[in-house]
Amino acid sequence: MGGGSVKDVKSKQELDGLVQSGAPVVLHFWASWCEASKHMDEVFSHLSTDFPHAHFLRVEAEEQPEISEAYAVSAVPFFVFAKDGKIADKLEGADPSSLANKVAKVAGSVNPGEPAAPASLGMAAGATILETIKELAKENGSSQEKIGASDTLKKRLQQLIESNPIMLFMKGNPEEPKCGFSQKVVDILKEEKVKFGSFDILSDNEVREGLKKFSNWPTFPQLYCKGELLGGCDIAISMHESGELKEVFRDHGIDTFDSAGAKVTEAGSGKGGTSAATGLSSTLTSRLESLIHSSPVMLFMKGKPEEPKCGFSRKVVDILAQEKVEFQTFDILSDEEVRQGLKVHSNWSSYPQLYIKGELIGGSDIVLEMQKSGELKNVLAENGIVQKDTLEDRLKKLISSSPVMLFMKGTPDAPKCGFSSKVVNALTEDGVSFGSFDILTDEEVRQGLKVFSNWPTFPQLYYKGELIGGSDIILELKNNGELKATLTE
């Protein structure tokens, strides 16, 4: 690519091709509304002349959501540096000298043997541009951090997201969308015959930038249902086409309306295409019963705990993790018979569904309310469901299980290593009674304790919950006649 020039990226395929070619690639994610982007773009253009062997590419972050999402862009200006087919570095914010340094690293310096950045930067940007950027950095230096930190903004975003059961953050408004992606999602919501609120992110830069970080989703539009992010344009299209969007809306009590604004269906009245009157077959009923009772805490959800397939399921998984209880799950997306049958059996039209000891507790809204009020903790306790210990809880209990506690290889009668044997002898000779734990019998304790105590080897000796040390320290205390005194203070 001779002469150095900046090229606008038109598609992800084109970009992937250039990156995979192995040549140095520098990407500038920018936005037309962002002043810092414009100034950095001038520096970027000059650098492209200084480094003619690299590809300098510009990506309009919001017009290319697929590319922005692939590179996890959450704010502009944002730079990505690739070399040898791999991402070598990233840079967020308006920082000309860092940009020049990082470009030099992937593209080689202007003159071999010379430090690239200062020279290159002098050529790259006239003094006025540099001054402007310094001013900008002063004004906006922390703006990207502020987005993450400001509680007032977080509250405002939360209120906006929850201001309507279905909420669309878009460019423009439903009557006059300002981008094709927003237009598509508006059309989908109209086809789904649901009422929705919208917010024009072009009218408020604080909301626009803040929401990207808040939702960890870098592009617009963003579609929310009952406060949970469903996704952007692509996800809305695929959920609409598969019929899942209709189901999510129905499951969350969203009514549908005809063009004249009259209510068509009462949400939740459709029982998944099976009417309770026909009843379920006895085989299915007994299968559902045995699934519901297969664990004291049983969650029917979309996806798996490590990979929930909807925000509502994720919320309940998070709550159960916070309550520290063991639970089993069933992925209703994997079994249509269970998915439809359980709606009828439980007379509950949506997922997730949480059961405790065979009794239906409810869906995500109810579980969240119960957690906030402390009622969930009570129900779990009443049913004898105790918190499972975390590894840290377990280690603390083990360490404190005896005033003097030795974690060793083997047992005091049959130590499995010389160091452990020496410590056992030292304690026995000094008449110190101690508890012990064989770390060879439990890999979780063995690895966990190294991290917990920040001590990489065994044996480890504790007194009243505090680490005394390993074999060297114990033998030194013994030789100095201080061991017994240390362990009986």
UniProtKB/TrEMBL annotation:
Keywords: Hydrolase, Iron, Iron-sulfur, Metal-binding. GO terms for biological process: intracellular iron ion homeostasis. Pfam families: Glutaredoxin (PF00462), Thioredoxin (PF00085). Residues 1-108 form the Thioredoxin domain. CDD domains: GRX_PICOT_like (cd03028), TRX_PICOT (cd02984). It is an enzyme of class 3 (hydrolase). Its EC number is 3.5.1.52. One of its GO terms (cellular component) is nucleus. InterPro entries: Glutaredoxin, GRX_PICOT-like, Monothiol_GRX-rel, Thioredoxin-like_sf, Thioredoxin_domain. GO terms for molecular function: iron-sulfur cluster binding; metal ion binding; peptide-N4-(N-acetyl-beta-glucosaminyl)asparagine amidase activity. PANTHER family: GLUTAREDOXIN FAMILY MEMBER (PTHR10293), GLUTAREDOXIN-3 (PTHR10293:SF73). Belongs to the glutaredoxin family. CGFS subfamily. This is Putative peptide-N(4)-(N-acetyl-beta-glucosaminyl)asparagine amidase. It comes from Rosa chinensis (China rose).
